[in-house]
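Hey, quick one: can you model this chain's 3D structure?
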Amino acid sequence: MLTVPPNVTGQDEAGRLWDVVWMLRFAIQKAQSGQARLPFALYVRNDNRAPRLIKLIAMYGPLDIDDPRPVITVMMPDED
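Sure thing. Here's the predicted structure for all 80 residues.
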């Protein structure tokens, strides 16, 4: 999702990462308390045509069973 195909103008990985984090920020602000699965979306261009809507999911929870520190994981909706 963050990787920019070759020859796509006006796109880079740092900018895409910024867009993901920025849109996630707004989704977190609108989320209900205790919501662990948070859908959000943003537009990206993978060619030099019109951008398309990409839907993502952010999950909040422990890193793993042996490490209870909380983390936010961002993924495509079909990756959970």
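One thing worth noting: The mean pLDDT is 89.
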